[in-house]
Amino acid sequence: MFDDIREIDEKVLTKAVSIGVKDVKANTNVVTSFMRKSWRSTPVKKSADGVSKAINNYMDYAPHVNYGHRIVNNKKETVGFVKGQFMLEKAVGKVDKAIVKEFKKEVERVNRKHDK
């Protein structure tokens, strides 16, 4: 049973992050589709604190679209601001909900497997 419990955290995290990647891709506006295609998750990293996995985008302008940016004229004066779309934050919310749901399912599966 302990071996099953050890692998739950990695399995649950992988499932939840894949749900987050699907969500962030769906929420990304498509202009040229490069930014949408660039969303990826990192491999699972194990440490003494547990496991971690991240969602990232390797396009250099992705943070400006996600968080927003200022508009500057030729005189280097700020003339406006473009609001962020916060696709990543929305996806993180979905990941948080999916982790709870998937963890409950896995614990129930292990309990059924060991008749508890």
Secondary-structure content class: alpha+beta
Count of discrete domains: 1
Q: Give me the strand/helix succession.
A: HHEEEEHEEH
Q: Tell me the β content.
A: 15-25%
Distance between the termini: 11 Å
**Mean pLDDT over the full residue set:** 90
Radius of gyration: 19 Å
Descriptive report:
This protein is of the alpha+beta class and 116 residues long. It has one domain. It contains four helices and six strands, in the order ααββββαββα. The protein has helices spanning 2-27, 34-37, 62-67, 87-113; strands spanning 39-41, 45-47, 50-52, 55-57, 68-72, 78-83. Strands 1-4 form a two-stranded antiparallel sheet. A two-stranded antiparallel ribbon has the order 2-3. A two-stranded antiparallel ribbon has the order 5-6. A hairpin with a 2-residue loop joins strand 2 and strand 3 (50-52). Helix 1 (2-27) packs antiparallel against helix 4. The chain starts with a helix and ends with a helix. The model has no long low-confidence stretch (mean pLDDT 90).
Search tags:
116 residues, two-stranded antiparallel ribbon, alpha+beta, 4 helices, two-stranded antiparallel sheet
